[in-house]
Amino acid sequence: MTARAIGIDVGTSGVRAVAVDAAGRPVGRGTMATDSPGLDPRDPEMWWLATIAALRRLAAEADLSGVGAVSVDGTSGTVLVTDAAGRPVGTALMYNDPCPDEAVVARIDAVAPAGSAARGRSSALARALVLLRRPGAVRVLHQADWIAGRLSGRFDVTDENNALKTGYDPVARRWPDWIFGLGVAPSALPQAVAPGTPTGKVDVAAVALGLPADALVVAGTTDGCASFLATGADAVGDAVTALGSTLVIKLLSDRPVDSPKHGVYSHRMGDRWLVGGASNSGGAVIAQLFGRDRLPELTASLQPDRPTGLSYYPLPRPGERFPVADPTLAPVLEPRPEDEALFFQGVLEGIAAIEGRAYRLLADLGAPAMTSLRSVGGGAANAGWTEIRRRQLGVPFLPALSEDAAEGTARLALAGLGAF
User: Residues in domain Carbohydrate kinase FGGY C-terminal (predicted)?
Assistant: First the structure.
């Protein structure tokens, strides 16, 4: 079957490319891992080489001759700087790199509105200001922007979702004046457009990879937003929890809700909003405590109908982003019982409690009540943990249409093709 659109997901462990037909059904996939020893996750050229490899593998599996549009998502808050020609000036700062200059964070916090996602040490804007000091740096881009630029030859555009943590105002739909008061030249910031907006046609580099010369490049989104879109959640009150290395919460809302002191922010999706945040708890701490090899054995021993009574706050190291924004918050993993299976269930209950606390916080801050939940990520396949979470959250658990962020981004590409 001929592909009609392609979504590219530049994630933390690799690049995934998915081709879909005109109805949004996947017709081919191509992947390339980037978490091998010796690869630098901050090197933009490595991202591009992995994208090339993923697209070549996709082309070997699907007919790309009818592709009309391609879109890219990337990790939220990962930024780089380029020269005037779009060439990277040094390596990127990643989404989980704290700003290395606390004075920059303080300058932003002094002028940014209380609800701005650009506040705090995890601010993409703070990282961007540090990077702009590099000789030859003229423009800030996000990970998805730069990969899309390699496909289109255009390095002056971003989407409203990736721009959020760099200080973009999604309500007024513009870069606010207080950013320029920090010494940022207007030309250093890309034009921000809505996800799904066509931004141009593919360049020769994309044609060489098998895309038709008249295919459109469509503004993408962040990896978290793309994962939400992939699940099929589409009604106000629909929620999606991503149970990966970290715990990511998103709820579809009819209004924005922002509270940086809680790690809560809102991405604009047309006239609606994805409200949520990301906790440092999740699969990484589970793997750290138990190792991956023992998980099947420990999972078989779970007894969801018999709560342990343990009260943990599992973190891989001190520091939390959401639902508590505290860079010094210590993990709580005591008392530790001698029974390893009991300890394992207590840790899963602790993560489920963080998830429940997160959704309750969103409601307390003014978001609509959660009416249903879809789960994605490796932890979603754990039936025992699912039952623990179901008891904690008390809403219907619905199946996800897909867990692949690249499929959500492919649907954005289709939407852009329709608008065009």
Answer: 243-415
Q: In angstroms, rounded to a whole number, what is the distance separating the alpha carbons of residues 330 and 349?
A: 18
Under DSSP, the state recorded for 369 is P
Determine the Cα–Cα distance for residues 303 and 55; give it in Å rounded to an integer: 44
Return the residue matching tokens 């530790």.
336
Helix extents (H) in 99-241: 102-111, 124-131, 143-152, 177-180, 204-208, 223-231
**Cis before 335 (ω within 30):** yes
Consecutive 10-residue averages of pLDDT for the chain (420 residues): 92 93 95 91 96 97 96 96 98 91 95 90 93 98 98 97 96 96 96 97 94 97 92 96 91 94 90 94 94 93 97 96 92 96 98 98 97 92 96 96 94 87
Question: Packing angle between helix 340-364 and helix 283-290, nearest 10 degrees?
Answer: 170
Q: Where are the alpha helices (DSSP H) in 84-142?
A: 102-111, 124-131
| Bridge pairing between strands 372-376 and 238-243 | parallel
Which candidate, 311, 296, 305, 376, places its Cα nearest to that of 341?
296
Structure pTM? 0.88
